[in-house]
Amino acid sequence: MKKVFLPLLSLVLIALLDSCGTAKHYSYFENIDSINWNNYPGVLHESRIMPKDMLTITVSTTDPVAATPFNLSVSNTLNAGGQLSSTAGSLQGYLVDNDGNINFPIVGKIHVQGLTKEECQNVIHDKIIPYMSESEKPIVTVRMSSYHVTVMGEVKRPMNVSVTSEKMNILEALAEAGDMGQYGVRNDVLLIRTDADGRRHHVHLNMNDANVINSPYYYVQQNDIIYVKPNKVAAGNSVIGSSTTIWFSVIGIVTSLSSLVVNILR
User: Fold this and answer.
1) What is the rounded distance in angstroms from the CA atom of residue 25 to the CA atom of residue 209?
2) Comparing C-alpha atoms, which of 195, 50, 37, 173 is closest to residue 111?
3) How many helices (H) and strands (E) does the chain have?
4) Do the bridges between strand 200-205 and strand 101-104 make them parallel or antiparallel, or are there none, so unpaired?
5) What's the first-to-final CA gap in the chain, in angstroms?
6) Whose CA is closest to 74, among 57, 87, 60?
7) Is 51 left (phi over 0), alpha (psi -120 to 50) or beta?
8) N or C: which end of the chain has fewer CB within 10 A?
9) Whether the Cβ atoms of residue 249 and residue 217 lie closer than 8 Å to each other
10) How many CB atoms lie within 10 A of CB 148?
11) Which helix (H) or strand (E) holds 225?
12) pLDDT tens digits for the chain (266 residues)?
């Protein structure tokens, strides 16, 4: 029995020591007190328009009638005279195509890929000015519809996180998914990103390091995938869990046979 008991005891001790070792990197931003924030210039994040984004665009002028052709609503129809008539309804959304363009009323195709919201507003403003009189001063407002990022792995609630504001950082995305579990590897979080050209790349983020706040990947983008890897304890538990029943059965059989042999030898 000693030959069976000692190896089992060793395995238990190794698992306990391994779990204690992982506690060292359990918290976020372990070095935050050593960082001089004055070394980092303040930069406000701005999302950039990508293919498949849905935009809501509003044009306002001193003459509401002049702005009507640029504000297509879902309920807009053509009357018997072939003129555009509008009733109360939500504004028509503009889907950015694979080439980064939208089809805007009157002016036609406009390339918006890679632009910030403000840059897009300026481009559309310049496009519609020729169709306005000098007295009209158009104001263009662009809003980006919600998008999602995927959070998976060792988090409490793996999910697609809907981003309804124009920006969300990786901490907020993890919080929406219930945060990382106790077995999540915090110093090696994988982020997979698709850029505006459709090319994919990945980075490894150390959430123990407060410098991650200044990373260009701190703010998530459309269709980002965030994967939290399991640590060695979680991986070991998975293996142990799948074979626990077999091991207990084997140990039970060995114990019974040992008892039988002892009784016979007596």
Assistant:
1) 10
2) 50
3) 5, 12
4) unpaired
5) 17
6) 87
7) beta
8) C
9) no
10) 16
11) strand 225-228
12) 445 444 554 455 455 555 454 455 667 888 888 888 777 766 678 889 999 999 999 999 988 888 999 998 765 555 556 555 555 456 789 999 999 999 999 999 999 999 999 999 999 999 999 998 878 889 999 999 888 999 999 999 999 999 988 889 999 999 999 999 889 999 999 999 988 777 899 999 999 999 999 898 999 999 999 999 998 875 555 545 445 555 555 566 656 656 666 566 66
Tokens of 62: 């001193």
Q: What tokens appear for 147 in the block?
A: 């998008």
Q: Could you tell me which of 169, 167, 168, 148 has the C-alpha nearest to residue 215?
A: 169
User: DSSP characters for 157-192?
Assistant: S-EEEEE-SS--BHHHHHHHTT-B-TTB-TT-EEEE
Q: What is the biggest distance separating any 2 CA atoms in the chain, rounded to whole angstroms?
A: 113
| Number of neighbouring beta carbons within 10 Å of residue 127 | 16
Helix, strand, coil abundance in the chain, percent, nearest 5: 35, 25, 40
C-alpha to C-alpha distance for 29 and 186, rounded to whole angstroms: 10
Report residue 72 as tokens: 């297509």
How does DSSP assign 102-142, residue by residue? EEETTTEEEE-TT-BHHHHHHHHHHHHGGGS-TT---EEEE
State the residue for tokens 């077995």.
Answer: 183
- Please state the pTM of the whole predicted model: 0.70
Q: What token pair was written down for 188? A: 């090696």
- Residue whose C-alpha is closest to residue 201's, from 187, 216, 214: 216
